Amino acid sequence: MESKVFISNMTELGDLVRASRLAQRLTRDDLAAATGLSPKFITHIEAGKPTAQIGKVLHLLSELGITLRAEVSVDIPADVSTKASHRRRSTHGR
């Protein structure tokens, strides 16, 4: 079942992570083993720690089957997002 949840802060994101983990009957240790992240990191995310590393958070969300989507309130021309994507590939040698 797919649902939309609006997240405006890390506390709400942490609540979503915890609810998803519990709905899947996973312990923090189970999730840590599946993601390679520490149980302490997962505890921090669930507590709404505002300084969590975004890459690790995205990895955790992916493991739980959570996809993030952004609503953008300004018009972004296609050529601007294409240029940004190209710069990232060039910077990282891809």
TrEMBL record:
Q: What is this protein called?
A: Transcriptional regulator
* GO MF term set: DNA binding
Q: Which organism is it from?
A: Paraburkholderia dipogonis
Q: Which InterPro entries does this entry report, sorted A to Z?
A: Cro/C1-type_HTH (IPR001387), Lambda_DNA-bd_dom_sf (IPR010982)
Q: Domain HTH cro/C1-type: where? A: 17-72
